[in-house]
UniProtKB/TrEMBL annotation:
<feature type="binding site">
    <location>
        <position position="79"/>
    </location>
    <ligand>
        <name>[4Fe-4S] cluster</name>
    </ligand>
</feature>
<protein>
    <recommendedName>
        <fullName>23S rRNA (uracil(1939)-C(5))-methyltransferase RlmD</fullName>
        <ecNumber>2.1.1.190</ecNumber>
    </recommendedName>
</protein>
<dbReference type="GO" id="GO:0003723">
    <property type="term" value="F:RNA binding"/>
</dbReference>
<dbReference type="InterPro" id="IPR030391">
    <property type="entry name" value="MeTrfase_TrmA_CS"/>
</dbReference>
<keyword id="KW-0698">rRNA processing</keyword>
<dbReference type="GO" id="GO:0051539">
    <property type="term" value="F:4 iron, 4 sulfur cluster binding"/>
</dbReference>
<dbReference type="GO" id="GO:0070041">
    <property type="term" value="F:rRNA (uridine-C5-)-methyltransferase activity"/>
</dbReference>
<feature type="binding site">
    <location>
        <position position="92"/>
    </location>
    <ligand>
        <name>[4Fe-4S] cluster</name>
    </ligand>
</feature>
<keyword id="KW-0479">Metal-binding</keyword>
<dbReference type="InterPro" id="IPR029063">
    <property type="entry name" value="SAM-dependent_MTases_sf"/>
</dbReference>
<feature type="active site" description="Nucleophile">
    <location>
        <position position="412"/>
    </location>
</feature>
<feature type="binding site">
    <location>
        <position position="315"/>
    </location>
    <ligand>
        <name>S-adenosyl-L-methionine</name>
    </ligand>
</feature>
<feature type="binding site">
    <location>
        <position position="281"/>
    </location>
    <ligand>
        <name>S-adenosyl-L-methionine</name>
    </ligand>
</feature>
<keyword id="KW-0408">Iron</keyword>
<dbReference type="Pfam" id="PF01938">
    <property type="entry name" value="TRAM"/>
</dbReference>
<feature type="active site">
    <location>
        <position position="412"/>
    </location>
</feature>
<feature type="domain" description="TRAM">
    <location>
        <begin position="8"/>
        <end position="66"/>
    </location>
</feature>
Length: 489
């Protein structure tokens, strides 16, 4: 067998362009000879020179090498790990943009996405919800690698567009106590026998600052390593958890710490206990404001019955129960349903709540009818799905004659929100009364949003627009919106 030839070195290619706008990942968008280019580190209104990194049939990806005309919105990034070159952290993509401008860009992305994918426009644009810009991240999954060429153990986020771990010593979006743990964690893990068999450390901070570290272990923990972990917990005032396999195997090293983590929703006098591997919103301050807004937008009265889809631990269910007659939370995970039920009992809300485990991605009209009978009618609906959205539920709500008076849809993906709103509006006649963004993840391209829908007159026949959108949905599924934000201009 002949020797494998070395890959040819790529000759750098440079282009100078005027940047038009941002995509959902915080990259500048420009056009070269009619082809879309996504440029890392470029801002709208700037004239830049970029190096082409990748070339695809319909788009290129580049990286800024020189700025000839700088945007007034450009600021100096606070984090030393931020950048666009090799070795930079991939956790934040917008630190070079003035924070209030980040919010304006995200609002534009939401509205553009609703129109370009769903051909819908909200009647009202809600004021954005803000929270802290720094130290807001109460949950994180830190990757661990023992890299001898870099001096030993690294603990942090992945480098941009890479599986490598950034060489981090601080992170200003993590809570200050967690940021300060990055170097001590490196020293701790370096001293463990299983330093090469520990791929990640998950971090969770409760509403009172209580902090848990979940060490993912691929081998049984030796007694010596176990004692070192506990000693680290005592020294740093941390709860130590171990996770030998999947998230369901995570357990506190000290059993008395199993139920100590919690977050508060003070307006509703609700405390939600959670495990560090459970899904909770990373930004506690923003979450409180978001829940308050969602409950207000539902326009509840004490006699109303509410369905909360994708309810998780009851982040919306329990506050809703404080304002409504009865609420049923529906979630795909049996474990989350059990803990949500316990949370309702802990908060004195068991009599006003019920929880069920159902696959909401296969939700059908028979499920909706059965739920209607259980509650004796449904006055309001809250939907808070993962990135995949709630297409099955949207199709049921578009078809049913038993429609709730109002739906509040909380979304972490503008593309699937637009798709689901398109189904509701074009097929079911629902009106998009309002929509707006919530800056859950400052300095990132993540767009969290909320929409309010009310039933309107259902079309007699499916429109050409609805047919076209449905074909597009079938062809594209849950793909990211970024290409739609460029190709249609």
């Amino acid at each position: 067998m002949g020797r494998r030839s070395k890959p040819k070195e790529r000759t750098p290619e440079y282009f100078t362009v005027d940047v038009e706008r941002l995509d959902q990942e915080g990259r500048g968008i420009a056009h070269v000879d009619g082809k879309v280019v996504f440029i890392q580190g470029a801002l709208p209104g700037e004239r830049v020179t970029y190096e082409r990194l990748r070339s695809k049939t319909s788009f290129d990806i580049g990286r800024v090498t020189e700025i000839h005309k700088e945007s007034v919105l450009r600021v100096q990034p606070r984090c030393p790990n931020f950048g666009i070159g090799p070795g930079s952290c991939g956790g934040c993509t917008m630190q070079h943009i003035e924070p209030s401008a980040q919010v304006a860009f995200k609002e534009r992305i939401l509205l553009d996405t609703l129109w370009r994918i769903g051909k819908v426009k909200p009647e009202e644009v809600l004021m954005p919800i803000y929270g802290p810009y720094w130290g807001y991240r109460h949950r994180a999954r830190l990757t661990v690698r023992n890299v001898l060429k870099k001096g030993g153990v690294l603990v942090g986020f992945h480098e941009k567009s890479s599986s490598y771990v950034a060489d981090m010593h601080e992170c200003p979006v993590l809570t200050p106590n967690v940021s300060a743990l990055l170097d001590p964690l490196r020293v701790l893990i370096e001293d463990l026998d299983m330093r090469d068999r520990m791929p990640q450390v998950e971090v969770a901070v409760g509403g009172d600052g209580r902090t848990a570290l979940v060490f993912r272990t691929l081998d049984p923990v030796t007694p010596e390593d176990h004692e070192k972990l506990l000693a680290f917990g005592r020294e740093k005032n941390l709860d130590i958890w171990l996770q030998p396999k999947g998230p369901e195997t995570a357990h506190a090293a000290l059993p008395e710490n199993e139920t100590k983590l919690g977050l508060e929703l003070s307006e509703f006098n609700v405390r939600i206990t959670f495990k560090p591997t459970d899904f909770t919103q990373v930004n506690h301050a923003l979450n409180e404001t978001m829940v308050s807004r969602a409950v207000r937008l539902l326009e509840l009265t004490p006699d109303m019955k509410v369905a909360d889809f994708f309810c998780g631990l009851g982040n919306f269910t329990l506050p809703i129960a404080r304002r409504a007659k009865r609420v049923i939370g529906i979630e795909g995970s049996e474990g989350l349903v059990a803990r949500a039920r316990q949370g309702a009992a802990d908060n004195g809300l068991a009599a006003k709540t019920a929880f069920r485990a159902r696959n909401l991605f296969t939700w059908c009209e028979a499920d909706w009818e059965e739920l209607q009978k259980t509650l004796g009618g449904i006055d309001r609906v809250l939907i808070d799905p993962p990135r995949e959205g709630a297409l099955a539920l949207a199709r049921v709500l578009a078809k049913t004659d038993k429609r709730p008076g109002r739906v509040v849809y909380v979304s972490c993906n503008p593309a699937t929100l637009a798709r689901d709103c398109a189904v509701l509006h074009h097929e079911g006649g629902w009106k998009i009364r309002a929509a707006g963004i919530m800056n859950m993840f400052p300095h990132t391209g993540h767009v969290e949003s909320i929409a309010v829908l009310e039933p309107g007159e259902r079309p007699v026949e499916k429109s050409d627009e609805a047919e076209a959108i449905e074909r597009r949905i079938a062809a594209e599924g849950d793909d990211n919106v970024k290409m739609h934000l460029s190709e249609e201009n």
